Amino acid sequence: MASSQGKVRVLYAIIVILILALVFMGYKTHKAETEREKSFTQGVELKSELDKVMDEYTTVKMENQDLSAQMSEKDSIILANKAEIEKLIATQADYNKIRRKLELLRKITQEYVVRIDSLVVANQALTEENTQMKETVTRFQRQNTQLEADKVQLQEKITVASVLQAHDIHAQTVRLRADGKEIATDRARRVTRISLKFNLSENKITEPGLKTVYVRIFRPDGVVMTLGSDDIYTFRFKGEELSYTMRQEIDYRNAVQEVKMHWDRRDTETPAMSGLYQVRIYMEDEEIGRSEFSIRD
């Protein structure tokens, strides 16, 4: 009987131990499942935060591609930390360790964003400064262009103002007597000389000194009266070689000055051509006066 009771107690003890073992196993299994669920939840949470950090970084990088080249070193650091955190999340490493790494990455990306912003501001400032400089240069160029135009215009006015003018032009045909006295006549058979008299205007702008006066007299048929066809009887006017009838050197002193010139006919036996004669007076590449006279049969 005692032996039978002992067996019952042993049986109860075994049952208790089995129950405790089952309870312990159930607890361990539940705890493991809870840990796995917690680890999974934490992994999802950490991955979400990592994606958020990287999204902000990527957005800033894409919006400022022209500046991101200056941040290549930071890019390498950020991508290396991202890869490390992803690896830790995948292996379900220590949560606190991963979070510290994530906080470090967040700090680095924030510094990246701040640096990009500062570069944007600096770049905008440089752009504005460059625009202002270009506007200033353009303004000065316009001013210089205007000054050059004003200078040219002023020089043209000075050039025009410095041109001497012939006034009171008197062209007359005469017969030269043996005693040298001139007798006015407009008869073709009697004309032996053409006398020309005029006044040069007063001009304080033009340079004083020796100047050459050229006169061209056109016959009624348009031919210029000249002593010969050689180059010594020509002068340059507006880039062309023109023949002249008379020339004379004068010493101009910026005051009104009378000039007298004459041209003698070589063939006095033949009558002069009748009709209207044109007189043109030139000096220093300018035509300074005109006149005319007539000869009749």
Q: Summary?
A:
With 297 residues, this protein is of the alpha+beta class. The protein is 52% helix and 25% strand.
Low-confidence stretches: none
Second rung of CATH, namely the architecture of the largest domain: Sandwich
Q: What is the CATH class name of the largest domain?
A: Mainly Beta
Largest sheet: 4 strands, antiparallel
Instruction: Characterize the overall form.
Output: rod-shaped
Mean pLDDT value: 82
Number of strands: 10
What class would the helix/strand composition place it in? alpha+beta
Strand order of the largest sheet: 2-1-3-8
Task: Report on the architecture of this protein.
- α1 (2-63) packs parallel to α4 and α3 packs antiparallel against α4.
- The chain has a four-stranded antiparallel sheet, with no helix packed on it. Strands 7-4-9-10 form a four-stranded antiparallel sheet, with no helix packed on it. A two-stranded antiparallel ribbon has the order 5-6.
- The chain is rod-shaped and about 195 Å long.
- It contains four helices and ten strands.
- Helix content is 52%, strand content 25%.
- The chain is α+β, with helices and mostly antiparallel strands and 297 residues long.
- The mean pLDDT is 82.
Helix-strand layout with pairing:
Blueprint: H1 2-63, H2 65-68, H3 72-90, H4 95-162, E1 166-176, E2 182-184, E3 193-200, E4 209-218, E5 234-237, E6 240-243, E7 246-252, E8 257-264, E9 275-283, E10 286-295
Antiparallel strand pairs: 1-2, 1-3, 3-8, 4-7, 4-9, 5-6, 9-10
Helix pairs in contact: 1-3, 1-4, 3-4
